[in-house]
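Give me C-alpha cells for this 422-residue protein.
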Amino acid sequence: MESTEARGILRKGILHNITWLTASSLLVRPLWFVFITAFCMRVLGTSGYGVMTAALSLMAIASLFSDLGTFEYTVREVARDGDRAPRFFSNFMPAKAVLAALAWTGGLVVGWGLGYVGSDFLALGAAGLYVMALRLTEYCRAFYRAFEVMHYEAISVVLEKALVVGLGVLFLLRLRTTEGVLAGMALGMAVGMGLNIVWVHLRVAPVRLAVLDLPFLRVAFRQALPFGVMTLFAIVFLSSGTVLLEALEGEAAAGQYGAAYRLLEALQVLPATVVAAVFPRLSSLHQQRESDAFRHILRRSLLLTGLASAVVAVALALLAPAIIHLLDPSGAFDEAAALLRIIIWNFPLMTLSYVLHTALIALDQQRFMAVVLGAAAVLLIGLNVLFIPVYSYFAPAWALVVSQSLVLVSYVWRYRSASRLL
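Here you go.
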C-alpha cells in the first residue's frame, strides 16, 4: 500500500521541480536542437559536421577527468546534510578548475596523436574549452539539485543556451568553419559558467576561505572515485562510437552517424528532467529509511518515462526519413535516416537505465554500476573495432543497442537484490 506521505512528496515537491525543468527545456531545447543539428549540418556539411561531432565526443571523454564523480557525490551528500554545502563548493570548485585545465591539455595530446592537425586541432581545442566550462557549470547545478531549488537550474539552463546558441550562430555565420562555431559556443559557455559560480556563492553555498581543507579534498575525492569511474565508463560507452568511426571510416561517416545520434541525445532531456528532480529525494529517503516512499517514487518514474520513451521511439522510427530531410533538404545526410531507425531504440533502453541508475546511486551501489558500465564500454569498443571496417556507421548503431540492453538487464537484477535491504 502506498503511503499518503509518499504521494504528497511526489505531488508537492518532485512534480513542482519537474514542472520548472520541463518549462525551461521546452523554451530552449528546440532552439538548441535546431542549432546543433540543422543549422550546423547545413553550413558545415558532412565532413565539417563530422569533425565537430568527433571533437565534442573526444573532449567529453577527457572532461570526465575534471569531474571524478564529484557531481553525483555532491548531490547525494549535500541532499543528506545541507550544512556541508559551503565546504563542498569552496573546496571542489577550485580543484575542479585545475583538473579541467589538465584534462583539456590531455585531450589535445590525445587528439594530436589521433591525427588532429591544423584547423581540426583548433576545433578540438575550442570543443575542449566548451566542454570543460560546461562541466564546471554543471557542478554549480549540483547544489541547485541538492537543495531542490530547480527554478535556479531552470533559469541557468535558459541563460546558458541563449549565450551558447547566440554566440555560436554569430561565429558560424561570420567564419563558417567548425573551429569558428565551437569558439563561439565556448565563449558563451564560459560567460554562463561565471554567472553560475557567482549565483551559487550568493544564494546557495557561499565560498568561505576558512573551510579550505586539503585533507577534506583527499577524503572526498577518494569517496567520489567510484562515481568518477562509473561516469567515465558511461561517457566512453556513449561517445566512443563517434570517435572510433571518425578514426576508422573518416569525417563523412562520423557526420552521418552524428546527425542521427544528435536526435537520440536531444531526447535525453526526458529522463534527465525526471532524474534531476527525483535523485535528491531518493537519496534523502534512503537516508531516512523511508522504503515505501522510495519505491513509490521510483515505480512512478519508471512507468511514466518508460511509456513516453517507447511512444517517441516508435514515432521517430516511422518518421526518420522525413525528419532527416527536414534537418537538411540537400540530401547530403539522407543515409542518417536508416541509422536513426536503429539508434532510436536506445531511447527507451537508456531512459529506463537512467532512472534505475539514479535509484542505485541513492542505494550506494555505485561500485557495481562502475563494473557494469566498464564491461559494457569494453564490449562496445570491441564490437566497434571489429565491425566498423565491415559495416561502417551501422556498426556503432547496433553495438549501442546490444550493449545498452545488457546494461538495463544488469541494473534490473541489481535493483531487485538491493531493494530487499530497504
